[in-house]
Structures are given as structure tokens and as C-alpha cells.
Amino acid sequence: MGVRWVFFSGARPWPCLVLATASLLGFLNPQITIIIAPWPFLLALALFGMPHGAADWSIESKLMHRRGFIARLFGFKNYLLWMLACTLLIALAPGFAILGFLLLTVFHFGMADANAVGADEDGFVARWALVISRGLLLLSTAFALHAQEAWRPFSQIAQAISLWPQSSWMPNIVYLAQLATIGMVFGGLLAFFGCVARMMRGHWREAIQDMCEHSLVVVLAVFSDPLFAIGCFFIGVHAFRHTRRLAQTRIILEPPACHPNFWARVIHVHFLSLPLLLPTAACLLPLCWMLGSFDARTIAVSSIAFYMITTLPHHLLGLKLPAVDLR
């Protein structure tokens, strides 16, 4: 039993298991993914997803060695100002805010993956090819093949939060799908060149694993409901890998002395998220009210709205994380 748990602490096994299971489900019965589409995002409210972002309060204070609530709050002011700026952009220009969020998500997902699977160490081409291709293969494929379904949550967010929902500029869905098709093809080419670059470094095994992951992401996006596909990737790949990175970074965990067991440190990261996680949960209530319901899908959409507000400061803070020093 212990060997199996150690195996799933690696950067590849758990994400690949999630991707393979979700892809197979979408391939065999796409209708089921429509029915259960919101549930990956709902599960992410408590496991990996929301907690890995809510840990930012503790991460910032530990990286900057801040003590006491006032000092921590003062140090967190830039994070909160970025959240305010993103909220204002959604309210004033929702179309631009959504496109900006999708572009940022491509880089945010890709950079986390490149760091987790070691592409960062294989040179410029290997790193940035994986960074850009991973997010494009997920998001562009979803928007190219399921444009209306992929856009629906963002349309709901714009209608709920925008000050001028009827007159604000929004992208044309047809043009967006065409642009996404180009992105999907470009993502495939980048994925290929990235794998070749890793092979040229002698990392054939890693390159093949990257291509397998790329393929699973494409299958998931092609056959599944977009909300389900993105939610599964978010909780099973991105959030897990980011949480794993935090659980392998000593300065984030100490003091006290960190636990030698990896999964105990993962639980520790979740506990670090509680001071910000509880206020975050409270923020979802007014978002659901603005969206007009409290059902499962609306809660999932409200969480996406919250990620639109927080992903930029979360990403900027993540750039400050040191290299992992625990296994």
C-alpha cells in the first residue's frame, strides 16, 4: 500500500490517471460528461483547486517573512489591488477580461506543467513549446469544437457582473471558434516540436510521456463537455501539480519542521489555505446570487468568476516560488 501511495506522489501518475479516466468517459458516453459537468469544479472547492490558490495568503507571508495579521495584510495589499483591478475590468469590459483570462490561463496551466515535468530544464524550446501547447490544446480544442458550450459560463459571468451587459463589446462566437481552431493546430505543432526538443536532449522517455499527456488532453477536450474537460484538467492536473510543488518547498511549510511523508505535507498545504479559503467561500454566495441560482452549475460558474478575479495575482505570486527542495 505504501509503495502505491509513493507512486501517486509523482508528477505524472495521478494527472495521467485523471486524464485517462475522464477522456475514456467522454469517449464512451459524452452525455454523461454534460450531466456531471460542474462536479469537478465543485470538488475543487475543497480539494487541490481552490485550496492551492487560497494558500497564497500564507505563501506570501512565508516568502516575505511577515509576522502578525497587520504585517501580513499590508504585504498582501498588491494581491488585493490586482483582484480589484480584475473585478473592475470584468465590470467595465467583460469581453476583454474574458479573452485576457483565457490567454493568461494558457500560460498559467502550461508553466505549472513545464515546471512539474522538468521541461524547464531542457532549454527554451522545450519549455515554452510545452507551456503554450498544453493550454492551447485544452482551451482551443474546447472552443473550436464546442464553442457555444465553452462560451456559456463566460457569457453568464458577463451578464451578471458587467455594468453594461447589453452594450459591452463581446467577441463573435463564430470568429472565436475560428481563432480557436488556429490555436488548436498551432498547439499541436508546438507540442510536437517541444517533444522533439526534449528528445534531442536525450530525454526520450519524458518526451513520450509529454506526448501521451498532450493526446489525453486533446481526447478529453474533443469528446467531453467543455466545463467537465476544463474542470477535470484543473483539479486533476494543474491544481494537483501546484499543490505538489508547494508540498515540496520547505520555506512554505516551515516552521514547524515539515513532515517526511509527502501526503501529510499535501494535507498541511490544505490547512495553510484555510485563512483565505473561508472568506473565498463566502465570496461565492453573492456571485451565485448575481448569477441567479445556487444549483451545482451556478456554483461552478461562480468559482470560474472568482478565478477570473484571482488568477493574475495568483500567477504573479507563483513566479516568486523557489525551486523545490523536498521529495
Structural summary, described in words:
- This protein is an all-alpha fold and 327 residues long.
- The chain has one domain (2-318).
- It has 18 helices and no strands.
- The chain has helices spanning 2-7, 13-28, 30-35, 39-44, 49-54, 56-63, 69-75, 77-92, 94-116, 124-145, 147-161, 173-200, 204-223, 226-247, 250-253, 262-272, 274-291, 296-318.
- α8 (77-92) packs across α18 and α10 (124-145) packs antiparallel against α14 (226-247).
- The longest helix has 28 residues, at 173-200.
- The radius of gyration is 19 Å and the shape is globular.
- The chain starts with a helix and ends in a 9-residue tail after the last helix.
- The model has no long low-confidence stretch (mean pLDDT 92).
Helix count equals 18
Determine the mean pLDDT: 92
Percentage of residues in helical conformation: over 70%
Computed CA radius of gyration, to the nearest angstrom: 19 Å
Beta strands, count: 0
Q: Provide the low-confidence segments as ranges.
A: none
Shape: globular
What proportion strand? Answer: under 5%
Q: Structural class per helix/strand content?
A: mainly alpha
User: Helices and strands, in N-to-C order?
Assistant: HHHHHHHHHHHHHHHHHH
Q: Roughly how many Å apart are the termini?
A: 19 Å
**What count of domains describes the coordinates?**
1
Q: Biggest sheet: strands, sense, closure? A: none
